[in-house]
Design brief:
alpha+beta, 2,3-Dihydroxybiphenyl 1,2-Dioxygenase, domain 1, nine-stranded mixed β-sheet, about 20% helix, globular, binds zinc ion
Length: about 150
């Protein structure tokens, strides 16, 4: 397993505008950060970099959406998942599964295991670390991912 960096951290919130305002006021998140709508995954998200890490602050557009249901289950907003960049996603998944991991279906794409996303191949695990969902991403190099889909 070779985790090279944290690709992003994704937080589940009830009100992305309000949350983004707090990041701007309290932590100096970039003032020009805007909330964007991602139709495929039915999320509204503010995405920005802070301290060298990409933050994704996400709010479900539907009451039973991925992030809304997570908040309902836990009773509070919080860190939903960390996306770990790996050198080779197939090798990482094989190693994790050999160590007892189970793959989880991607909420947006309904695909289990490695599949194309806008920035790289991704896969989710059913297993958590410290209550945090695990996402792997093998980030595309320049000539890869030409068929990448739009949106998060
Ligand atoms: Zn997906």
């Amino acid at each position: 397993m070779n985790v090279t960096l944290i690709k992003h951290m994704t937080f589940a919130v009830r009100d992305v505008e309000k949350s983004l305002d707090a990041y701007k006021r309290l932590l100096g998140a970039p003032a020009d950060t805007e909330v964007k709508t991602f139709a495929k995954s039915r999320n509204k998200a503010a995405i920005f970099e802070l301290g060298g890490i990409e933050y994704q602050i996400t709010e479900s557009m539907d009451p039973d959406g991925r992030f809304a249901s997570w908040i309902d289950q836990r009773g509070h907003e919080g860190l939903h998942h960390i996306c770990f960049a790996v050198e080779d996603i197939d090798a990482a998944l094989a190693e994790a599964q050999a160590n007892g991991a189970t793959l989880k279906e991607c909420f947006a794409c309904k695909v289990t295991g490695s599949h194309v996303h806008p920035e790289g191949w991704v896969a989710f695990l059913d297993d958590e670390v410290s209550g945090i969902e695990i996402e792997y991403m093998q980030v595309y190099k320049e000539d890869e991912g030409v068929d990448r889909p739009e949106g998060v």
